[in-house]
Design a protein that fits this description.
It is a single chain. The protein is built from 10 helices and 17 strands. It has helices spanning 5-14, 24-35, 96-112, 133-137, 140-145, 198-216, 254-274, 294-305, 324-330, 356-372; strands spanning 42-47, 50-55, 63-69, 118-124, 149-156, 163-166, 169-172, 174-183, 187-188, 223-232, 238-239, 242-251, 278-282, 286-287, 290-292, 311-314, 333-339. It has an 8-stranded mixed β-sheet, sandwiched between helices. Strands 8, 10, 12, 13 and 14 form a 5-stranded antiparallel β-sheet that branches. The protein binds the ligand CC(=O)N[C@@H](CCC[C@H](N)C(=O)O)C(=O)O. The ligand CC(=O)N[C@@H](CCC[C@H](N)C(=O)O)C(=O)O binds at residues 94, 128-129, 154, 175, 177, 248, 285, 287, 320-322, 346. It is an enzyme of class 3 (hydrolase). Its cofactor is Mn(2+).
Length: 375
């Protein structure tokens, strides 16, 4: 198998990023490739814009899963790659093009060289939102093909190529999106006393939200409230009638998530009374923490440490979120970081992961599955 072809596939996928549950071209591209493989041991089923591929084992006693997310982000690419996104305003800025091409590489190997156990490849839509993992888990296909163990990776710009980073237990946080709409009374810029200005209310609210992590969360626990977007108003000399705040909440414990939300609701109520406006809070999609199974992670770290070309870093937990957490809640397994050495981080318009990491991941996971998949 020529591993360099998977960097080429990654470039093709990089050109066509699509948002969650709109991954129509991505699904068609993946299917075309998967259908070009020897079909003798494969069973393919589509689910919405996702795909399940089962590689039937020779004498299976279990099924091992590999999950790759497939959606892109609403970011305008600034990499100057020859193979930049052809979809305006959209980019694979979270490495899902890597996750898919690595999945195709591992699948290609096992379509040609099946092992004793079954393998299940899950190409999952909508990781960035609204979340594809949970509905995929509840699907009839998953009920029939549910793996006994499951693995996924995520690219890590901050680690060098050739390294992976992982830990037992909690790896990623609990997350919840946060949308707050404010409606007051707009009017002429010169007559503020006749209005309820939602620009001022929204600015106050954003500042007050910052006090929650500082004052209401146990300092030995961790939480983040990030407001990534504010929209308000129409032009410079009209007082804004409406404002919208969009953000995300991250906590290491489910208890802190409940506490943070309780405080957000109290503060929003205060702004509502103080600014005589109407408010609506919507928590959008929520993800369960990524909790790595202790025994499987330990076994994987021992295995990876024995591979000459891989450096294993025992990392800290991160406040990122991943709906793979839902899969790990039901299926023993783990997620690990794959070092890709990019000067720009995840969700950045100039993210440039090093493609040499694709080969590292394909050969590491292939060998790991070969070790695990002996009946
Ligand atoms: C790995 C990663 O970057 N995941 C995203 C998941 C986002 C979930 C949701 N849209 C939210 O913002 O809460 C992340 O931002 O951590």
């Amino acid at each position: 198998m020529d591993i360099s072809q998977f960097a080429a596939l990654r470039r093709e996928l990089h050109k066509i990023p699509e948002l969650g549950f709109q991954e129509v071209k991505t699904q068609a591209f993946l299917l075309r490739y998967i259908e070009s493989l020897p079909q003798e041991h494969l069973e393919i089923k589509t689910w919405k814009t996702g795909i399940f591929v089962k590689v039937k084992g020779k004498k299976p006693t279990k099924t091992i899963g590999y999950r790759a997310d497939i959606d892109g982000l609403p970011i305008t690419e600034e990499t100057e790659y020859e193979f930049s996104s052809t979809h305006e305003g959209l980019m694979h800025a979270c490495g899902h093009d890597f996750h898919m091409s690595i999945g195709l590489g591992i699948l290609t190997h096992f379509a040609n060289h099946p092992i004793d156990d079954n393998l299940l490849f899950i190409f999952q839509p909508a990781e960035e939102g609204p979340g594809g993992a949970q509905p995929m888990l509840e699907s009839e296909i998953m009920k029939e093909w549910k793996p006994d163990q499951i693995v996924a990776l995520h690219i890590a710009p901050e680690y060098p190529v050739g390294s992976i980073a992982v830990k037992e237990g909690i790896l990623f946080a609990n997350t919840s999106e946060l949308f707050i709409d404010l409606k007051g009374k707009g009017g002429h810029a010169a007559y503020p006393h006749n209005t309820n200005d939602m620009v001022v209310a929204a600015c106050q609210l954003v500042s007050q939200l910052q006090t929650i992590v500082a004052r209401n969360v146990d300092p030995l626990d961790s939480a983040v409230i990030t407001v990534g977007k504010i929209t308000a108003g129409t032009v410079q000399n009209i007082i804004a009638e409406r404002a919208r705040i969009e953000g995300t909440i991250r906590t290491l414990s489910p208890e802190s998530m409940a506490r943070v939300k309780e405080r957000i609701e109290a503060i929003v109520k205060g702004v509502e009374v103080g600014y005589q406006c109407e408010t609506v809070i919507d928590y959008g999609c929520m993800y369960h923490q990524v909790y790595n199974n202790h025994d499987m992670t330990k076994e994987f770290m021992t295995f990876a440490r024995a591979q000459e070309e891989v450096e294993v870093i025992e990392c800290q937990k991160a406040m990122t979120g991943e709906d793979f957490g839902y899969m790990l809640k039901e299926i023993p397994g783990f997620m690990f970081w794959l070092g890709v050495n990019s000067p720009y981080g995840l969700h950045h318009s100039k993210l440039q992961p090093d493609e040499k990491a694709i080969e590292v991941a394909i050969s590491l996971i292939t060998r790991y599955f070969e070790m695990k998949g002996i009946a």
